[in-house]
Amino acid sequence: MTSRVLTKLATAGGIALAILAAGTAQAATYELQFTGTDVSGDVFATTTGTGAVQTVVGVSGWVADSEVGTGTFAITGLSSYAGATNLYYEASPFVDFGGLSFSTVSGGAYNLGLGGSDATGLVFNAGNINPGGYPGIAGSTNITMTATAVPEPASLMLMLVGIVGLFAVARRRTAL
């Protein structure tokens, strides 16, 4: 009886791992948090593809830039501002020189890219002040940024199902 339960649990676990692997190969979401003098933001970038370089296909979140206005500006979608490549790199600095550009509600277009201190740091460009998106001039602020992978809800649910299954098997064993 116990071997039948373990066989079923192992089969379910294998199916869950296959579903999880298929889901992560298609899309991932990363949270990019940044700060600089008079600017900050929390950007969620959804990517497609696999490997070290992925294409960003959607963005959401907010930015604050006191040079442009007060409060925060909600991100509405991707933009081509500043010649953006809209690529995400899994390793730091996470973006290239073309960077990641997006539009906001009433704040205009922005770009996160390379070109900060000594052309190796990160910079946040504001399209309202810096139409060309050039680093090192007004409307361009050096920033620090962290990136974190955001777990997909399906992945969290599969993990929860696995933990409950292991608990059920352990409980049944102690009952025998």
Individual helix count: 2
- Rounded Rg: 22 Å
Low-confidence stretches: none
- How is the biggest beta sheet arranged? 8 strands, antiparallel, barrel
Along the chain, the helix and strand elements come as HEEEEEEEEEH
**Overall pLDDT confidence:** 84
Which class do the helix and strand fractions yield? alpha+beta
Count of folded domains: 2
Helix content: 25-40%
Strand fraction equals: 35-45%
Q: Could you tell me the number of beta strands?
A: 9
Q: For the largest sheet, list the strands in their spatial order.
A: 1-2-3-4-6-7-8-9
Q: Give the distance, in angstroms, between the N- and C-terminal Cα atoms.
A: 11 Å
The best one-word shape is: elongated
Q: Which labels suit this protein?
A:
176 residues, alpha+beta, elongated, 2 domains
Summarize the structure.
With 176 residues, this protein is α+β, with helices and mostly antiparallel strands. The chain has 2 helices and 9 strands.
Question: How would you characterize this protein structure?
Answer:
The chain is α+β, with helices and mostly antiparallel strands and 176 residues long. It has 2 domains: 2-25 and 154-175; 26-152, no CATH class. The chain has 2 helices and 9 strands; from the N terminus they run αβββββββββα. The protein is elongated and about 75 Å long. The mean pLDDT is 84.
